[in-house]
Amino acid sequence: MNHYKIALVGNPNVGKTSLFNKLTNLRQKVGNYPGVTVEKREGNIERNGNKFSITDLPGTYSIYPSSLDEEVVFKILGDKSNKLYPDLTVVVGEPSNLKRSISLYLQVRELGVPSIFVINMKDEIESKGLIINIEELEKFLNTKIYLTNARTSEGLDEVIDALVKPTKEFYSKFKVPQVYIEVVKRIKDNFQLDSDYIAWQYLSQKYIPFLNPKQQEELDAIKAELKIIPKRLQVKETLDRNKILDTELEKVVSYQFKEKETLTDKIDKTLIHPIFGYIIFLGILLLIFQAVYAWSAPLMSMVEDLFGWIDEEAISIIPPGPINDIVGGAIVPGIEGIAVFVPQIAILFLFISIMEETGYMSRVVYLMDRWLRPFGLSGKSVVPLISGVACAVPAIMSARNIENYKERLLTILVTPFMTCSARLPIYIVLISLVIPDKTIFGLSYQALALFVMYLLGVLGALGSAVILNLIIKSKHKSFLILEMPTYKLPDWKNVFLNVWEKTLGFLFNAGKIIFAISIILWVLGSFGPGEKFNNAEEIVTAHHPKMNEEELENEIASYKLENSYLGNLGMVIEPLVKPMGYDWKMGIGLISSFAAREVFVGTMSTVYSLGEVDVEDNQQKERLLQRMQSEINQNTGEPAYNLATGVSLLLFYAFAMQCMSTIAIVKKETNSWKWTLIQTGFMTGLAYLVAFIAYHILK
User: In DSSP terms, which residues pair with 28 in a beta bridge?
Assistant: First the structure.
């Protein structure tokens, strides 16, 4: 059986991934290219005794990389030693922007890569009033052109048959400008290249990603010697190529009607209107936020109930002892801590996939880019930022839609500043404790305080983006090159496949880190040194002989937590948290809330011997508030939760990276512990500084 490596290449929004899905019949695997976070899709098909390994390369407008995604395309097609270097490249275009697609096709062919040209979305030729003389276009390109409609599978068989027809038509030679002929020959000889166009690329790109440092140094020396400015060569090639294409395409493409307004044009009059466009987009965001925040709640409750049942069953089946404790106290809750995010992730990516499939996502980028660009972000950053108000985990995953590496990294690093739903229980309790229940101009002080906390999240995200934009350097400049695709009904297979892949990716990648950290925190809270921890039951019972069973149980749990490794750690870090106005008990809360921010409330209720507390239950909430109000800080002799300490805690949680799930997903999406630790350190440092200043101003 012959085995062929096939690469799919094309501009964004030409239906390339839909074609890939149809070719592979959704039998594909998704991963990352080595060393980068760019997504790689691969699938295999067999036909007529041949096996084809098909790779769907990232969308690109040109062989010249302007983003990490486009760099991946050049690295694969420009380097014959690359494992993914294809036997054949299928360049996919669409009727509306033939010139751009043909330009890319010619570049790929001139690299020396065997290539065929496919015009997808065949149905749009007629609907847009286009007349394309395919015979004339084939003569100009000296190749056969394949017409497809990926949605209906029309033309797919012809494309598959063409994958094993190696003919001279697959190649074309780049015409080197006269003035550069000698230097191109020199580059070919020095670097043992077999293509003029590859040599031209060496000259016209600032750096070549697959060269080693010594080779790059040699190339830079040649360019410096001859005073070659790479960007000028790129511009010259583009102008020369466009001049030829403009002339040729006038003979090939014409319009049945020039003035007819399409349905897409009519819809765009409203959806990208300078006023109504933003109103509609905010309405859609509100719907997404409502879905991620509220609609997912019943599903998340079902997940929690399911794991609660599994926990009870496991405890009842496994004999009492260490295995029972770790299964019921760590393993099942650890898996639950991963699975509980699945509804939010699935719902968010369902909306994002629908927006992409219908063509609306391009309009979102267009609307928001001008507002976010000054902060170093892109129009596509708006979905992660807004989604972060519900939960940072799916929000950070949605940043994968941002092609530019720097903008994607910035978005990932600042999204956790947005006030997520997990902070809400902490805010409710602390605001109730330290902010008076009074009104001003009919507005509640407490409501205003909550509004300020959400506003601080936005300011933290945008302010940090400005700072990080100055620090993080990028070898790729960001340009807004936007394709406004025709509106169409979503391909539901593509939508659900995307949701499935993103959800599975979270479960198996970020889930490993979340699970490991949850086990560590359980061990720290469930075990302790010395007699106080081991004899907690006897000691507490002796000191409180008149307590009822429930009160005694809560007191024992509190005493054990105080004397556990986690409690000891809280006392160890007390000198660090003392300048912010906290005592060791609050220190335990800070450490335990690393599992999830909302755990702070549960930990405090355990520390104060109250058992589990539901902050939505007014009676339980009131009981916790009364206990916290009566608590005295042993370091200061003052109430532990006064205005200064309460505001300090609120500000700490507003800015701190107190969430292992977020850290796990940042590691997965950046593929870097370096940036994950920088983000954690930056947010924690900022939180500490702000909380410290607030405490000393207000105390």
Answer: 43
